[in-house]
Amino acid sequence: MAGLLRQLIEECSVEGSGNVAVAVRNGGVETITSLCSKIPIRSSEQILVLAFGALALLIHGTSCVLLRCRILVWYADIEGTEKFRSSGGPAVLISHLREGIRTLGILNSGFSVVARAATSNEVVKQSFMELKIDELILQVLNEQSKGTVQSLYDAIRVLLTPDDNRVVASEVSSCHGNSESFLDVRREDCD
């Protein structure tokens, strides 16, 4: 299994090959999401990390830009993020992140998927917020003392940044609501 996931990652990492688009069109996102839902963390951590890596590539391909201050920005691939959402990806991912909260590899690869899936897709952002990702993020920040979960900060940035591309007027304030949710959870921790 690990070998197949590595090969998928390798093939989808070839810039300009079109392999990501072919994989997404032929059910790659749904298949990897389903696979993730069946992988137990305890016995298959390495495979789950590879599966999250493949999922991150399939959701947004290799289109990313490194801006000043080392901030990654991914270009939106609505087809990939919608397939992730409709196949139950947010719930599967949050479940594994909660279970693997003390595992740096799971956290880094999992929050990388969160950042890519939520980029330019308010519906996916809202799905993550409904699954209480704000509480999970604060729990990770409080408990993680060994190592840094860089992708966690990318996920926070994406979740709190408004996307105007597909947002209806009534949803424009969702970013503000997400920020308030993070603050409310933090206030509860301080009490």
UniProtKB/TrEMBL annotation:
* Keyword Repeat among UniProt keywords: yes
Keywords (A to Z) from UniProt: Repeat
Among InterPro entries, the record links this protein to: ARM-type_fold
- The source's domain of life comes to Eukaryota
UniProt-recorded name of the protein: Uncharacterized protein
- Species in which this protein is naturally found: Linum tenue
